[in-house]
């Protein structure tokens, strides 16, 4: 298998609320929207939003559950100032602050927010290596 992440699909409780958060709030470009799913192009990776119940049914697992999802989605940027700016943009869009941007143990600068369904996003600056698109068409 070739190493790659093609799409992250988040199970959401209110599809329209989540579309508004990602599209209008954060400015993610929406590719399409069917009755119960929406897609956003993230410059090489895609974000899918799908009803929580429907996604669980598709995977054949129970939809119940709460607490820590055991993963976080990371959005890396070029400077600590950009971490602050992106975090503020997310908060204005309706995100919930989890951890204020700050210097972290591994030498970078990062903070966390939750989207309307509680999915964790880390906004980070890594001073040691760029983690993100490298092709100019993906920037």
TrEMBL record:
Coiled coil: none annotated. Residues 4-126 form the VOC domain. Pfam families: Glyoxalase. Gene3D superfamilies: 2,3-Dihydroxybiphenyl 1,2-Dioxygenase, domain 1 (3.10.180.10). CDD domains: VOC_like (cd07251). PROSITE patterns: VOC. InterPro entries: Glyas_Bleomycin-R_OHBP_Dase (IPR029068), Glyas_Fos-R_dOase_dom (IPR004360), VOC_core (IPR037523). This is VOC family protein.
């Amino acid at each position: 298998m070739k190493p790659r992440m093609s799409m992250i699909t988040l199970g959401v409780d209110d599809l329209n609320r989540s579309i508004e958060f990602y599209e209008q709030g954060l400015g993610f470009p929406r590719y399409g929207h069917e009755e119960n799913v929406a897609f956003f192009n993230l410059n090489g990776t895609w974000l899918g939003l799908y009803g929580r119940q429907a996604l669980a049914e598709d995977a054949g697992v129970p939809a119940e559950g709460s607490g820590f999802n055991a993963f976080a989605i990371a959005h890396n940027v070029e400077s600590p100032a950009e971490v602050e700016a992106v975090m503020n943009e997310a908060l204005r869009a309706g995100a919930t602050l989890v951890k204020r941007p700050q210097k972290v143990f591994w030498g970078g600068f990062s903070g966390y927010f939750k989207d309307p369904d509680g999915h964790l996003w880390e906004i980070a600056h890594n001073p040691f290596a760029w983690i993100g698109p490298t092709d100019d068409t993906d920037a």
